Amino acid sequence: ANMEFYLSQVTRAQEEERKRVAREIHDESIQSLATLALGIDAIARGKEKLSEDVLRRLKGLRAETDSILDGLRCFSHKLRPGVIDQVGLVAALEILTEELNKENSVKTSLEVAGSERRLTPETELALFRIAQEALHNVKKHSRATEAKIRLKFIRSKVKLTASDNGRGFELPDTLSDFATEGKLGLIGIQERTRLLGGKLLVRSWAGRGTTVVVEVADIQGMKG
Ligand SMILES: Nc1ncnc2c1ncn2[C@@H]1O[C@H](COP(=O)(O)OP(=O)(O)OP(=O)(O)O)[C@@H](O)[C@H]1O
Ligand SMILES: [Mg+2]
């Protein structure tokens, strides 16, 4: 019970810390870089007569600033996908899988079944984080060529499945065993599922891939 309490505190603290870092990136770094970009523009368009060479180099610096800005926006978006609150889990998962497809490593698809509806913000954020970590693991460990996220809206439940066709791995007796090796991804998934009062199933077959299934009750769905 102590370990569980500890893990739930760590999960909450992590989410808080991510929010703080995302806000800092947004408010500080992005703002400063935007100011820097304006400064470069001001020099380029200033009264002083600049040589072609200097202008070309300023243009290069400006382009580099823009690409750092893009990177930071993308990063802060990953830390705190505010997009979930606005457009919902399904659209956020679409963005996530599209991003992975752009990387050209694992072909990733999203499949939505049942009567699509909005869930509580906590549930949507947790399911998004779970999908994100599962896909992160696919990329990092599986050597899979294909990954699939399935989201199924059942009457009073929602089921999220992340599967790949990779090499699989041997599951320890309990997922907590990973913690001692400093591996916190699957344990984080377990913890998020527990906080939602849901059920987690991790299965893996040598040479045939891995499946992570999370099932949570949807109280709103039950009412509706
Ligand atoms: N989709 C997968 N395919 C193959 N192996 C996997 C997959 N997912 C997890 N594993 C194995 O399970 C281990 C535990 O995963 P977990 O996400 O908990 O830790 P990690 O990814 O190693 O580290 P962290 O998530 O903390 O960065 C991994 O080290 C890897 O060996
Ligand atoms: Mg991991």
The CATH topology of the largest domain comes to: Heat Shock Protein 90
Listing every helix as H and every strand as E from the N terminus to the C terminus, the arrangement reads HHHHEHEEHHEEH
Stretches where pLDDT falls below 50 for ≥5 residues? Answer: none
Strand order of the largest sheet: 1-2-3-5-4
Coarse structural class: alpha+beta
The molecules bound to the chains, other than polymers, are: adenosine-5'-triphosphate, magnesium ion
* Number of alpha- plus pi-helical segments: 8
What's the pLDDT, averaged over the residues? 88
CATH architecture of the largest domain: 2-Layer Sandwich
Keywords: ATP-binding, Kinase, Nucleotide-binding, Phosphoprotein, Transferase
GO cellular component, one term: membrane
Pfam families: HATPase_c, HisKA_3
Domain Histidine kinase/HSP90-like ATPase: 124-216
Summarize the structure.
The protein contains eight helices and five strands, in the order ααααβαββααββα. It is of the alpha+beta class and 224 residues long. It has a five-stranded mixed beta sheet with strand order 1-2-3-5-4.
What are the defining features of this structure?
single chain; 224 residues; alpha+beta; Heat Shock Protein 90; 2 domains; 5-stranded mixed β-sheet; 8 helices; elongated; binds adenosine-5'-triphosphate; binds magnesium ion; EC 2.7.13.3; histidine kinase
Description:
- It catalyses: ATP + protein L-histidine = ADP + protein N-phospho-L-histidine.
- GO terms for molecular function: ATP binding; phosphorelay sensor kinase activity; protein dimerization activity.
- Residues 124-216 form the Histidine kinase/HSP90-like ATPase domain.
- Keywords: ATP-binding, Kinase, Nucleotide-binding, Phosphoprotein, Transferase.
- Residues 17-82 form the Signal transduction histidine kinase subgroup 3 dimerisation and phosphoacceptor domain.
- The protein has 224 residues and is α+β, with helices and mostly antiparallel strands.
- It folds into two domains: 2-79; 83-223, 2-Layer Sandwich (Heat Shock Protein 90).
- Helix content is 59%, strand content 18%.
- It has helices spanning 2-45, 52-79, 83-87, 89-102, 121-142, 176-179, 185-195, 219-223, and strands at 107-114, 146-154, 157-164, 199-205, 209-217.
- The protein has a five-stranded mixed beta sheet with strand order 1-2-3-5-4.
- Helix 5 links the parallel strand 1 and strand 2 (146-154).
- Helix 1 runs antiparallel to helix 2, helix 4 runs parallel beside helix 5 and helix 5 runs antiparallel to helix 7 (185-195).
- The protein is elongated and about 70 Å long.
- The model has no long low-confidence stretch (mean pLDDT 88).
- The structure holds adenosine-5'-triphosphate and magnesium ion.
- Magnesium ion binds next to helix 5.
